[in-house]
């Protein structure tokens, strides 16, 4: 046997062996393999997509306007503090429109000085017509558009961070249009928990209770969860302008009854969760979980100042307008460490820590589409996909054997080799297999045979001209080479375009098709050729069954 033939046969054998090794984790045989194999050999195989193993498909819309409103609200609080420091105290600074804020001054003669300070420190706010002793500002349109676009981008990254910590294999998270986000979570069983984790705004705020107001002393200690609307109807109109009514969820340990404890809380946020650097779940002395948070240096300084100025006052820790705890500040707290306690389970504490670590969504998100794909549908899809692949393969194999005889059998071997290598490469890449991906594999079967048909017809032409078998085979491969490459390259370009601009399942189709095309070039031009060369070198064929 010639050295060139031996080298190509060795390459084919190694390719088949490596492909099988990588694909084994995707088969039912893998759990029965010995531990040493699982330790040293690849352990990840092909991941099934949402349409095959079930899971969650969601389309979310970011409420970008809220991001603008939140920024204007924070700026209003910041301007109030600035004017107090500059000895130009304002009666009120509040948002008066989606992107407008109004500063009310007690003395009209301070208007010019206040305007200079505000415009010097907040150049993105443009002055509008300001009657009397007020100053009205409007956020620039360019800044409004930037905030809206940034809100969707930041929401995308925040949701991705949360899902990564949730532990979903091969999730799909991508932007769709200017303000929508598509999420696919294959294999997720606890859909309710996943949806709550994804959609939670996670805006952490530290606020002081308004204990000096008489209303605070008349509030009941707790109410049942069902009586919240009745409570708000009775007390809502009595709430002062600068305060809010919020609730803390309290669970009775003996009965398990969920109640709500009302608090009168000042609207002004004295610190937000953007200063957090870490959040971890710990167990307290009474075996109750709590979330330990750590702040950056800036947050630690601010928290130390806040606690020093408000000793013996109650500080509410608020997440998404829900009070988690409202402890009394006993002393100055330095170091930037704090605890969030509450009546929650270990899983709830874990989810809270995840959203705090991943960061707050810049704006609320609204669910436009929410589908849960059951595993039974996925099993039916897998079964039907396998049946279609097997049926297509059998029909092609029979046709090639009948029409091209021995050469057809060689082409069928190349077809099987093509499928083995393709599944091995998909497993090595830990690719996600979807229904369109299976369609791409079936299409690859047809393209694999098409290449061999071109080669065999060229060989037939050479044989009709009276050339010996060996020269006819070499001539057939040489003349079909450019035609095969051209057809494969054009299809590959189409597959790449689908991958770049397609979404979800379309990408799966493009991946399996493009890999199948590349592998088919190898099996058609190298795999079958080396078999012909091997047979001819051993038996010196005088006639070829083709």
3D architecture notes:
The protein is of the alpha+beta class and 546 residues long. The protein folds into 3 domains: 3-19 and 375-539, Multidrug efflux transporter AcrB transmembrane fold (Up-down Bundle), CATH 1.20.1640.10; 65-143, Hypothetical Protein, Haloacid Dehalogenase-like Hydrolase, Chain: A, domain 2 (2-Layer Sandwich); 200-372, 2-Layer Sandwich (Gyrase A, domain 2). Helices cover 53% and strands 19% of the residues. It contains 15 helices and 20 strands. The chain has helices spanning 3-23, 35-40, 50-53, 64-85, 111-121, 141-166, 191-199, 214-218, 228-235, 297-309, 346-358, 375-428, 435-464, 469-501, 505-539, and strands spanning 47-48, 55-62, 92-95, 100-104, 125-127, 134-139, 172-176, 180-186, 204-208, 223-224, 243-251, 258-266, 271-272, 276-283, 289-295, 315-319, 322-325, 337-340, 365-373, 432-433. The strands form 6 sheets. The chain has a 4-stranded antiparallel sheet with strand order 7-8-2-19. It has a 4-stranded antiparallel sheet with strand order 3-4-6-5. A 4-stranded antiparallel sheet has the order 13-9-16-17, with helices on one face. Helix 1 (3-23) packs antiparallel against helix 15, helix 6 (141-166) runs antiparallel to helix 7 and helix 13 runs parallel beside helix 15 (505-539). The longest helix has 54 residues, at 375-428. The two termini are 24 Å apart.
Per CATH, the architecture of the largest domain is: Up-down Bundle
Radius of gyration: 34 Å
What is the CATH C level class of the largest domain, in words? Mainly Alpha
Helix fraction, binned, reads: 40-55%
Largest sheet: 4 strands, antiparallel
CATH topology of the largest domain: Multidrug efflux transporter AcrB transmembrane fold
As for the number of domains, it is 3
Structural class call reads alpha+beta
Q: What strand order characterises the main sheet?
A: 7-8-2-19
SS elements, strand count: 20
Q: How far apart lie the N and C ends?
A: 24 Å
CATH-level-4 superfamily name of the largest domain:
Multidrug efflux transporter AcrB transmembrane domain
Q: Any idea what the shape is?
A: elongated
Average pLDDT confidence is: 82
Output the number of helix runs: 15
Q: What is the beta-strand fraction?
A: 15-25%
- Point out poorly predicted stretches: none
